[in-house]
Amino acid sequence: MRVCVIGAGVVGVTSAYFLARQGHDVVLVDGQPRPAEVSSYANGGQLSYSYVAPLAGPGVLPSVPGWLLRQDSPLRFRPRLDPHQWRWCLQFVLACRASVAKASTAQLLTLSYLSRDVMHTLLEQENLDFGHLKNGKLIAYRSAELLDKARALVAYQAAHGAEQQVLDAAQTLAREPALAGMGASLAGAIYTPSEEAGDCRQFTEALFDRLQALGNVQCAMSNPVSGLQREGRRIVAVNTRDGDIGADAVVLATGMGTRALLKPLGHDVPLYPLKGYSLSVPLADDDTVAPRISVTDYERRIVYARVGGVLRIAAMVDIGSANADIDTARIGLLKRQVLEAFPALDLSQAIPWAGLRPATPTGKPLIGRSHAADNLWLNIGQGALGFTLSCGSAALLTAQMAGMELPLDAAPFQP
Question: Do residues 289 and 298 touch, judged by C-beta distance below 8 A?
Answer without folding.
Answer: no
